[in-house]
Amino acid sequence: MGSVMDRLDLGILREMSRDQVVWFGSLDPRLSAAEIARRLHTDRSTVSSRLHAWERSGFLVGHEVVPSPLLFGAGIGGGNLRVDSLSEKRRILEDLGLVPGVISAVDHLGPWVALLFAFESREGLERSRKLLARVSGVGEVSPCVPFQAPEPEVAPTGLDWRVIRALAAAPKKPLRDVAPSVPVSAKTLARRLERLVRARAFWYLPLLDFSRYRRSTVTRFVVTLQPGRETARAAEAAAKVVPGLSHLTDSSTISDPGEPVPPMLDIIAHLDSVGQADDIQVALGAIDSVMDVEVLFPRRFYLYRNWFGERTEAKIARSEKLGRRYASDR
Question: What domains, with CATH codes, occur in the chain?
Answer without folding.
Answer: 1-212+299-330 (3.30.70.920), 213-298 (3.30.70.60)
